[in-house]
Design brief:
With 147 residues, this protein is mainly alpha-helical. 58% of the residues lie in helices and 5% in strands. The chain has one domain: Arc Repressor Mutant, subunit A (Orthogonal Bundle). The protein has a two-stranded antiparallel ribbon. α1 crosses α4. The longest helix has 25 residues. It is elongated.
Length: 147
């Protein structure tokens, strides 16, 4: 499995929106761009895909921006990546005639199991989980220990 920069930025931007889920006003692309250090133009492409998948709502106008379409506990890493990535799991190329039986067995006993584990893991990770982990790491970084 290979996740593109667009997929990584999509998850980061969605965590940023999750952090601001209770905000009364939508979050602008410019604000997300500045906070995450990601190109505004690149984020517009990402948000176009997220909007098409109905993971975010866009509000037009001078006070416009983006908001999550659902609570952070209802959006998974799988939802985000499957809306951005062309394919989450790469398929193997054609097998040579000599390796056909071996490849079929490997596919069934190794690669299919691995692919399913990856998808199950992505479906189990919610934006709320990622936000909790981020808050925990930020808290750990601000603590200073003296001996």
């Amino acid at each position: 499995m290979k996740i593109s920069a667009k997929g990584r930025y999509g998850i980061a931007a969605m965590v940023f929106l999750a952090r601001n889920y209770d905000a009364s006003s939508p979050i602008t692309i410019i604000s997300i761009s500045e906070h995450l250090g990601i190109s505004k133009i690149y984020l517009e492409q990402v948000f176009s895909l997220l909007k098409r998948s109905r993971l975010v709502n866009s509000i037009k106008g001078s006070q416009g921006g983006y908001q999550l379409s659902r609570h952070p506990r209802e959006i998974t890493a799988y939802d985000i990546l499957s809306s951005i990535e062309i394919s989450l799991i790469e398929k193997a190329g054609p097998a040579t005639e000599r390796m056909e039986t071996l490849n079929r067995m490997l596919s069934r006993r190794v690669f299919s199991v691995l692919d399913q584990s990856i998808l199950d893991t992505l479906r189990a990770i919610t934006l709320e989980d990622l936000l909790t982990a981020l808050n925990s790491e930020e808290t750990d970084e601000t603590l200073m220990y003296f001996i």
